[in-house]
Amino acid sequence: MSGESEADVRSAPETPEVGPAKKAEAPSQAPVRVLVTGFNDWRELGDPPQLWRCRDNPSCRLLLGDETQTEPSGADSFDGPLVARLRAAQPEIEWTFATMPVTWGVFAEVPSDRYEVIVNLGLGVYDRFDALQLEAGAYDLRQGKDAAGVERAEAIRGEADRVLAAPQAVAARVQALEGERVAGYEVVVAKAREDNAYLCNETHFSALSALAEGGADDPLRAAYFLHIPYAKDGDYEALAEGVAGLVLRLVEP
Questions:
Q1: In this predicted model, what pLDDT tens digit does every residue of 43-64 receive, in sequence order?
Q2: Could you give phi then psi for residue 242, rounded to 5 degrees?
Q3: φ, ψ of residue 170 in degrees (nearest 5)
Q4: Based on CB atoms within 10 Å of each CB, which residue in 1, 25, 105, 118 is the most buried?
């Protein structure tokens, strides 16, 4: 509030001061909407399984921060080190964060038509602490037992070509990042493969399918899957630094 009374406002000069003509300002564009997801734990969840437990999986810890056993209740639940870095680095982006139970078909619950870019994160680098692995395409297979105890061993779609490739622009960005180092982490790229057939692959297959099937009016223009390692010595701040740097590269216009 300005503190002026109604009389003050009415007594202001009616004729504005004449000055140089101002260039018309371009209308402001709507913010880019980006969804970043991670997965909850899937091992030793108890009986009945605590599907929303986030303790061991670094992809949910980067988003939520502290350990939890309950479903996130809103945007304020996401207070992890990756969230803080992304919001600080690109405040003009409309960031949304979500964690998902490790259950078959879970990506079907994601409203993919609300976002321009989706970046799904999952634990998947087990042989080193300093690599971030981008997936180049997805494989038409889901296999294994999920966190709820449901087992699958079947094709996702069942078409002749088992590999679902990303659109050219997405694929080109992924390949261009191969071999780069971000905050001490090497970016590696993995091709779609039969031995990568668990929830991460199904999720990426679903995201790429949504991207391929979208019409001209659908906002979704890119979908990525990033496999991450465990945080070395539990240092989620360092892991967040690397993941944030790569995510920011992925969401660049």
A1: 999 999 999 999 999 999 999 9
A2: -70, -45
A3: -70, -45
A4: 118
Report residue 19: phi and psi, to 5°.
-140, -170
Q: Which residue's entry shows tokens 């003509």?
A: 21
Alpha carbons 93 and 115: distance in angstroms, whole number: 11
- In angstroms, the CA 48 to CA 196 distance is 27
Containing H/E element for 122? strand 117-125
Is 227 in contact with 125 (CB distance < 8 Å)? yes
Would you tell me how many other CB atoms lie within 10 Å of the CB of residue 37? 23
pTM of the complete model: 0.88
* Structure tokens, 212: 């391929």
Host H or E run for residue 243:
helix 236-250
Map tokens 């180049």 to a residue.
136
